[in-house]
Design brief:
The chain has 304 residues and is an all-alpha fold. The chain is built from 13 helices and no strands. The termini are far apart.
């Protein structure tokens, strides 16, 4: 009898907390789960091909979301925009594979910092594809962020790390895919977009995964499955975070992933972030936070 009472009291105390505080807690948990996923991917990447990791990510993700898709039924899953779905999911899948390759082959802090350049590319892509109007200050923030990216990949060095270029390309691909979601969302519900994304991932990665297949053993099965499980839980935390709090207050907390990545990289993989990583990350994060706040302010004005 005591357990339900304690649970009820904790739930009541939680709901009495300010929405922004609850949002920050949810986002911090989600960021931690994504960071743990990166650690698992990096560890498994020593043995398994990235395409096999991707197949588990989409295959298990499809199983987790299957009840939602079954409830929708065939009629709700049908689409008249299959071409745009294919373009969007192709970009997103290429980006996902690129992120796996980056996480496996780069220090976690570097890979995470470059991933956060996605909002910078989103600004540019949105202007090109959907004619979004961008203020001069936001353009300046975007330029500052790209300077941070350039600092991290160090194009003036004797040799540019090709993995860093894959990381940048992945951020660009994800940004373009996210802008296409805005276009699709005019007629397509979110779960329908998720359905085609996961189906596409299974179709695309099954062949390469079989070709490069390495049979998991023991705990490796659990770790491979956890990639999709933790990703799904992380996304759930993010949704709850932005449902509970204001985007401009909650959003910047996502960058705590950089701290998680640096700590995990140092203690688990003996990775020491360089001065260039720190400087580039500061510029990228600062510009991305400004862009996020600008987006939130625009959304508020539209609602008003």
């Amino acid at each position: 009898m005591k357990t339900p009472i304690i649970t009820e009291r904790l739930s009541s105390a939680w709901l009495k907390m300010p929405g922004n505080i609850r949002g920050i807690v949810w986002l911090s948990i989600g960021a931690f789960l994504f960071s743990v996923t990166d650690v698992i991917v990096k560890q498994l990447g020593k043995k398994f091909d990235p395409t096999e990791l991707a197949l588990f990510r989409y295959g298990i993700g499809m199983i987790i979301l299957a009840p939602v898709f079954i409830k929708m039924g065939v009629a709700e899953l049908k689409t008249q925009r299959i071409g745009l779905h294919i373009v969007r999911m192709s970009l997103a899948m290429a980006a996902q594979l690129g992120i796996f390759i980056t996480v496996i082959n780069m220090p976690l802090a570097d890979a995470t910092a470059i991933y956060f350049s996605k909002p910078l590319f989103t600004t540019v892509v949105a202007v090109i594809f959907i004619s979004e109007v961008v203020s001069g200050r936001r353009w300046m923030a975007t330029i500052v962020g790209f300077v941070g990216v350039i600092i991290m990949i160090q194009p003036g060095a004797n040799t540019i790390n090709p993995i860093a270029l894959i990381a940048v390309a992945s951020a660009l691909a994800f940004a373009t895919a996210n802008v296409l979601i805005r276009v699709l969302a005019r007629t397509e519900p979110p779960n329908r977009i998720l359905f085609y994304y996961h189906i596409g991932g299974i179709i695309v990665f099954t062949g390469p995964a079989i070709w490069f297949w390495t049979m998991p053993a023991g705990i490796e099965w659990v770790l491979l499955i956890s990639i999709a499980v933790l990703t799904t839980l992380g996304m759930t935390c993010f949704v709850r975070a932005f449902s509970a709090g204001e985007a401009n207050a909650v959003g910047p907390i996502e960058y705590i992933r950089l701290i998680y990545a640096a700590l995990f990289g140092y203690f688990l993989f003996n990775e020491v972030p360089s001065l260039w990583t720190g400087l580039g990350a500061i510029l990228i994060v600062a510009s991305a936070i400004y862009i996020a706040r600008d987006e939130a302010q625009k959304a508020t004005k539209v609602r008003d």
